[in-house]
Amino acid sequence: MRLMLKFTIPVEKGNQAERDGTLGKAIQALVESVNAEASYFALEDGERMGIVIFEETDQARMPMINEPLFAALDAAIEIQPVLTADDLQRGI
């Protein structure tokens, strides 16, 4: 199933993680661990935000995906299934 993981990082924790080098490492580890199809980064409500699109078939991997972001960045995380235009056309 194709999933979209959206995360936001509180400003203070993001600034600290940028200074100590953990911000880039945590994001790179996420993108690599899920073999991301796409990843985008922006600001949302003044906080660092990222969206990572990936395929996952094993629900048991969710803690392995989420916990490093929680621990390293105090991230708030949302995950939801998403469709491509082709997926949508097949479904309707």
Sheet with most strands: strand arrangement = 2-3-1-4
Principal-axes geometry comes out as: globular
Overall pLDDT score = 96
Order of helices and strands: EHHEEHEH
Identify low-pLDDT runs.
none
Number of helices: 4
CATH class: Alpha Beta
Q: Count every beta strand, where a strand is a DSSP E run of 2 or more residues.
A: 4
Mind telling me the CATH superfamily name? Answer: Dimeric alpha+beta barrel
**Major beta-sheet overview:** 4 strands, antiparallel
Rg, Å, rounded: 14 Å
Count of the separate structural domains: 1
How far apart the termini lie comes to 18 Å
Name given to the CATH architecture: 2-Layer Sandwich
The helix fraction, in percent, is 40-55%
- Under CATH, the topology can be stated as Alpha-Beta Plaits
Which strand-content bin applies to the residues? Answer: 25-35%
The class by helix and strand makeup works out as: alpha+beta
Structure description:
With 92 residues, the chain is of the alpha+beta class. It has a single domain (2-91), classed as Alpha-Beta Plaits (2-Layer Sandwich). Helices cover 45% and strands 33% of the residues. The chain is built from 4 helices and 4 strands; from the N terminus they run E-H-H-E-E-H-E-H. It has helices at 11-20, 22-33, 62-73, 85-91; strands at residues 2-9, 38-44, 47-55, 76-81. A 4-stranded antiparallel sheet has the order 2-3-1-4. A hairpin with a 2-residue loop joins strand 2 and strand 3. Helix 2 (22-33) runs antiparallel to helix 3 (62-73). The chain starts with a strand and ends with a helix. The model has no long low-confidence stretch (mean pLDDT 96).
